[in-house]
Amino acid sequence: MNAFPTTDTVRALPAEHLERLMSVAREVSFPQGTRLFKEGGRADRFWIIRSGNVSLDLHVPGRRAVVLETLTHNQLLGWSWLFAHHVWHLGAEATTPVRAYEFDAATVRTMCQKDAALGAPVALWVGSVVAHRFQTMRNRLLDLFGPCGSGHSL
Fold first, then answer.
1. How many domains are contained in the chain?
2. Residues 78-111: pLDDT tens digits?
3. 148 belongs to a structural domain
4. 119-147 pLDDT, tens per residue?
5. Looking at the domain assignment, is residue 135 inside a domain?
6. Which helix (H) or strand (E) holds 103?
7. Is 123 inside any structural domain?
8. Whole-number Å distance between alpha carbons of 86 and 105
């Protein structure tokens, strides 16, 4: 791979670590409407989006899935691959045609376990994405289901 992602989502990962990750990436594409993963499925890969949009959604019993966030260019798609049980906590669907770098989770976990100098920054990178996603999800769910709307405090 010679074109590295460079925007905010991956900027938290030092260039030398991003370069190591990119060495095991493969380019993939998905047509609009493709379900990339669903809640409860095996989290065996993750992506950095090159182009297009992917919606993250949550199954709500008795309702249609709730879209929590839309991811786009250079954002990390998938974090469940890093944590024990490796099960997706949300669902994801391409809402436009998508091009992405795809990573095999087992390969990246092994790389991180063998080299703490890589593993620690990757864990912090993914952890920061998780923290952001949970805050976004909390606000979205409060907007949808909270008694007073927005999850933002005054």
1. 1
2. 999 999 999 999 999 999 999 999 999 999 999 9
3. no
4. 999 999 999 888 888 888 788 778 877 77
5. yes
6. strand 98-104
7. yes
8. 9
* Residue 88, pLDDT score: 97
Determine, yes or no, domain membership for 2. Answer: no
SS3 24: coil
**H/E stretch holding 133:** helix 116-145
Tokens linked to 66: 């709730």
Stated pTM of the model: 0.84
User: Which residue in the block uniquely carries the two structure tokens 């370069």?
Assistant: 19
User: What percent of the chain lies above the pLDDT cut of 90?
Assistant: 62
At which residue do the structure tokens 């030398």 appear?
16
Name the residue range of residue 133's domain.
Answer: 8-143
Q: CATH number, domain at 93? A: 2.60.120.10
How far apart CA 124 and CA 127 sit, in angstroms, is: 5
One-character DSSP codes across 28-70: EEE-TT-EEE-TTSB--EEEEEEES-EEEEE--TTSPPEEEEE
